[in-house]
């Protein structure tokens, strides 16, 4: 085998890993099996959504390389997870029947590269650099918002689901739909696949996801959200990300980090409620804003310890 063919195989492997790691990086993991289960969750929801998510992820990797992120960075999934979410957002807004949906996923995925570079540059500036803030899913929400606004006249309305309105079934369903709505999927089977993947990656991550889902739903109930809305997962999904981010990702996992996560999950649910009341497309903004504030607050408190 020549050195050229060996290098080609290595490059192909890194791009393939980038796809599956990208799916798992949505939940802060780098695990191929987790990634496979998350991609499967897209296809369970709708095969067109699965294709758009993969297309967006591939375009995200291309955009990352265009911005001179290393191939090693691509293989970790850090240049594909935002593109994958953009592809999912395209399906949620435009469906997947027309050719322009796939064009939008490509353009949106490519755009996550330069947006990621800009956010990194912003956070590297002196006033913010001391906080070591991650760009997390911010490139996705910025690009997705621009896409949705600019293609509003092409928007489609999907068949609305009919979630249960009874308290116990609604609450139990929300524990899975909160997990799946992180990737814009309101499907309990998809949520179960994703949750399984998170436990496979790290049992603490799985427990944190469950914690965020439970606390997010309970907060939504206390706020007074209808049971049918709680069941859909749109009130609690950002809390799932906040719980994983604060309890086990950006802080060293400890009793302090888990206790510190609890109030921020509640704050995330409140921010979600406020943004919904204002008619704003929330995406993962509640998680992003809350987690950034949590990181800055911890910097001044001196605890919990950063990872």
Structural notes for this entry:
By secondary structure, the chain is an all-alpha fold. The protein folds into 2 domains: 14-154, Orthogonal Bundle (Ammonium transporter fold); 167-301, Ammonium transporter fold, CATH 1.10.3430. Helix content is 74%, strand content 0%. The protein contains 15 helices and no strands. It has helices at 3-25, 32-45, 47-66, 71-75, 81-94, 99-123, 126-129, 138-150, 167-180, 188-201, 203-223, 227-232, 237-249, 255-277, 285-301. Helix 14 (255-277) packs across helix 15.
Order of helices and strands: HHHHHHHHHHHHHHH
Structural class of the helix and strand makeup? mainly alpha
The proportion of residues forming helix, as a percent range, comes to over 70%
Write out the CATH superfamily name of the largest domain: Ammonium transporter AmtB like domains
Briefly note the CATH topology name of the largest domain: Ammonium transporter fold
The total strand number stands at: 0
How many domains make up the 3D coordinates?
2
Q: What is the overall number of helices?
A: 15
Largest sheet: none
Q: What CATH first level of the largest domain would be assigned?
A: Mainly Alpha
Radius of gyration (CA) equals 19 Å
Low confidence ranges: none
Percentage of residues in strands: under 5%
Q: In whole angstroms, how far apart are the ends?
A: 42 Å
Second-tier CATH architecture of the largest domain? Orthogonal Bundle
The averaged pLDDT comes out at: 94
Large-scale geometry: globular
